[in-house]
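Per your request, structure below.
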């Protein structure tokens, strides 16, 4: 996989190649991050895998999404471009975190012939909670209100208080705060796919038709809705397995890469 930027309608500007092993994989990052966030976790498998870790639209060095159509559609198309760019049609292993995990799941549903295995780390498919938990209440309108009334920085700070890695906003480097605040609109832009399931992933029979090995990972200290989504997807996907990382929150691929690698290695039989 090339490390050089490339232009195109898929919206990607950079793909990092992580590892040098013979087995091919694709890693899809969470919102407000970039492909480089996978370095620690991918490093545990560098002899076995070569992972492509793209920057999704409006992240990292990618092109800014033009806000035409569906943001989830744009990200799925960008990720799918890496499947079609491979020199052969062999299936690969896909790993996704948070928003990236919802894109990974969609690829598995729509392109099952290209997915050898699927690892979902805290997929934020809130539509599962909407369906399964009558007490679930979305906080997306609150985030939109903060964004409209107080601006990008206030909205980003509020978002990270629930979904960040635990580092206080005030202690983050200014460049990091500015970068994330500049991308915060992707959070409400993704809402139709995450809350209303605009891609129809929960439609009858779609998840039930998955026949590749599927593994879900969550942190024990993550927001409560994560457990609802985790258990709901395991119940819907035949043969899906799950693991819980003690002491970890939502950013566990970054905060607990060794723990994630240990359970993923067992899943892959490495």
């Amino acid at each position: 996989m090339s490390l050089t930027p490339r232009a195109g309608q898929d919206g990607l500007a950079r793909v990092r190649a992580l590892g040098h092993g013979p087995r091919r994989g694709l890693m899809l990052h969470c919102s407000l991050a970039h492909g480089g966030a996978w370095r620690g976790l991918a490093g545990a498998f560098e002899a076995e895998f070569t992972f492509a870790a793209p920057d999704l639209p409006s992240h990292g060095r990618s092109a800014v999404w033009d806000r035409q159509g569906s943001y989830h559609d744009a990200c799925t198309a960008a990720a799918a471009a890496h499947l079609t760019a491979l020199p052969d049609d062999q299936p690969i292993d896909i790993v996704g975190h948070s928003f990236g995990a919802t894109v990974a799941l969609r690829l598995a549903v729509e392109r099952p012939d290209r997915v050898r295995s699927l690892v979902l780390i805290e997929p934020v498919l809130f539509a599962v909670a909407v369906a399964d938990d009558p007490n679930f209440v979305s906080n997306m309108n609150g985030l939109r209100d903060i964004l409209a009334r107080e601006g990008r920085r206030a909205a980003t700070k509020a978002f990270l208080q629930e979904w960040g890695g635990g580092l206080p906003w005030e202690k983050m480097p200014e460049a990091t705060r500015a970068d994330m605040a500049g991308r915060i609109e992707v959070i409400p832009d993704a809402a139709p796919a995450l809350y209303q399931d605009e891609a129809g992933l929960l439609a009858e029979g779609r998840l039930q038709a998955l026949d590749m090995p599927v593994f879900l990972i969550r942190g024990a200290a993550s927001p409560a809705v994560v457990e609802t989504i985790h258990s709901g997807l395991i119940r819907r996907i035949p043969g899906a397995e799950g693991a819980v990382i003690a002491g970890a929150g939502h950013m566990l691929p970054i905060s607990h890469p060794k723990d994630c690698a240990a359970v993923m290695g067992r899943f892959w039989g490495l």
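The chain has one domain: 15-133+194-268.

Regards,
D.
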